[in-house]
């Protein structure tokens, strides 16, 4: 994984201070609230997957303590990483 690239969907991570693994299922997510924020990832508990919105977690790459499994990558993923990188420059 490149220095500025995000982990692919399907990656399994443990957050700093966390005790439960999360599976990444989305990237560059805006959490809408009084103060909308952009997060690098959105994830759910692993192995349970989606339970409901209460058990969906937005977090940043810097919050990850350990990458347990890096998700599938192919040409489409590489192209998507380039789009994300270009969007970050703008």
TrEMBL record:
Organism superkingdom: Bacteria
Entries under Pfam families matching the protein: DUF4176
Protein name: Cytoplasmic protein
Organism: Bacillus haynesii
């Amino acid at each position: 994984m490149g220095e500025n690239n995000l982990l692919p969907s399907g990656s399994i991570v443990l957050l700093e201070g966390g005790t439960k693994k999360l599976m990444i299922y989305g990237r560059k997510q805006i959490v809408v609230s009084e103060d909308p924020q952009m997060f690098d990832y959105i994830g759910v508990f692993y192995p349970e997957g989606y339970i409901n919105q209460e058990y969906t977690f937005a977090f940043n790459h810097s919050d990850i303590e350990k990458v347990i499994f890096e998700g599938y990558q192919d040409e489409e993923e590489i192209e998507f990483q380039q789009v994300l990188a270009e969007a970050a420059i703008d």
